[in-house]
Specification:
The chain is an alpha+beta fold. It has one domain: Chalcone isomerase. It contains six helices and eleven strands. The strands form three sheets. A seven-stranded antiparallel β-sheet has the order 3-4-5-6-9-10-11. A two-stranded antiparallel sheet has the order 1-2. A hairpin with a 2-residue loop joins strand 1 and strand 2. The longest helix is centred in the middle third of the chain and has 21 residues. About 10% of the residues have low confidence.
Length: 210
């Protein structure tokens, strides 16, 4: 006697039963969307436009010197990442935005940025940046003082170079030396960053933003 074949669910039924699991898996794989932040009274937008493209807030945090808050730093990338290496070498436009939380000597800020670069790049790369760094140092020294609320933007646009913008005004010609912006970004994301806590915040750890 032939036993009856077990009843198989239809293809539609099988697909329907798999749908909730697929939706759950996709929701787990999706990175959380960037959201606007408020850090020490500074509004940090979730997205910005650079070169006609929308960039995502990758992270933001506070730069301290001893116990003093110096600036809020924000990092915007084409896609969000928690990897410093990915952030440094990601293709497309990028933006670092610094909002001053106290009055700072322009010369002092320029010197400190140069020192932090030297701490994070090899001698050959640093030598290749000397001309650009001297020009940048002169720019900040000429500014004399940056005041609370002033905004410094380092804008990297492929094929155009890195532009420094202070309070919405471009400050001279772009810096077009190969890798200039990437080496600047190492100030915050390099092996010896300006501040380890800030590095983690820029890589998406919102618990360390303040």
């Amino acid at each position: 006697m032939r036993l009856p074949r077990p009843c198989r669910p239809s293809r539609l039924a099988r697909s329907s039963s798999l749908l909730p699991a697929a939706l759950l898996l996709s929701s787990l794989l999706l990175a959380p969307a960037a959201r606007a932040l408020d850090i020490h009274g500074v509004t940090v937008p979730a997205t910005v436009q650079v070169g006609g493209k929308q960039l995502q807030l990758n992270g933001a945090g506070t730069r301290y010197f001893l116990i003093f808050k110096v600036y809020v730093a924000e990092l915007y990338l084409p896609q969000r990442t928690r990897s410093a290496a990915d952030a440094l070498h990601m293709a497309g436009p990028k933006l670092v935005r610094l909002v001053m939380l106290r009055d700072v000597s322009g010369k002092e800020l320029g010197s400190k940025l140069t020192e932090d670069i030297q701490n994070n790049v090899d001698a050959a790369d640093f030598a290749g940046m000397i001309t650009g760094l001297a020009r940048m140092g002169g720019l900040f020294a000429q500014r004399r003082e940056l005041h609370t609320g002033d905004v410094v933007e380092l804008i990297d646009t492929p094929g155009h170079g890195m532009q420094i913008r202070i309070d919405g005004t471009d400050s001279g010609a772009p810096y077009t030396d190969a890798g200039f912006f990437t080496n600047m970004l190492k100030i915050w994301l390099g092996p010896r960053p300006a501040e380890s806590r800030l590095k983690s915040a820029l890589l998406g750890d919102t618990a360390l933003a303040n």
